[in-house]
Amino acid sequence: MKKTILLSTMFLGSLVFAQETHVLGGDKDAHGCIGSAGYTYSQIKKNCIRTFEEKIKLKEVASNGNYIAAVIFSKDKNKAEVFVKDAEERSIILTRAGKGKAKAWKKDGYVLVPYKKNGYQLKKDNVVIYQ
User: Fold this and answer.
1) pLDDT digits (tens, 9 = 90+) for 47-66
2) What is the enclosing helix (H) or strand (E) of 96?
3) Which residue in 60, 59, 43, 42 sits closest to 51, CA to CA?
4) CB atoms within 10 A of CB 62
């Protein structure tokens, strides 16, 4: 009986030590951004950011706003970095094409245009996907 209890205790103890412990912050990317804390690297800001804390956020049209895209502009507004869920990279850098009221930022079928008073629309292949 003592042997059975001792072996059971040893077995259970080995299971506890065999489990991996996930440490918050142990998942830094190549830029040092901690994904589990909500950080991702911004090419425009050259720093780790939380996209959900950014000022410009767009709601996905197809999912009734369940997914959010964040937009960051360069200081001169010639580039726009867009964080979308289906991008191959973490973000897409769009370049400004046009000036004045006809301004838009474009790359590979993505187009970001001003929308309504202070908003923006993001189109993919001429279909609105975020606004």
Assistant:
1) 999 999 999 999 999 876 67
2) strand 92-97
3) 42
4) 11
* Rounded alpha-carbon distances, angstroms, from residue 51 to 70, 82, 101: 6, 10, 27
Encoded amino acid at 92, one letter: I
pTM of the entire structure?
Answer: 0.73
Give the model's pLDDT for residue 106.
95
Assess contact for 22 and 31: CB atoms under 8 A: no
Q: Counting Cβ atoms within 10 Å, is residue 35 exposed (0-12), middle (13-18) or buried (19+)?
A: middle
CA dihedral 55, 61, 67, 70 (to 10 degrees): -30
Radius of gyration in angstroms for the set of CA atoms belonging to the chain, rounded to a whole number: 23
Report the 3 state secondary structure along 55-72: CEEEEECCCCCCCEEEEE
DSSP letter assigned to residue 38: T
Question: What contacts 60, CB < 8 A, 6 or more positions away?
Answer: 66, 67, 68, 69, 85, 129, 130
What does the DSSP 8-state code read for residue 20? Answer: -
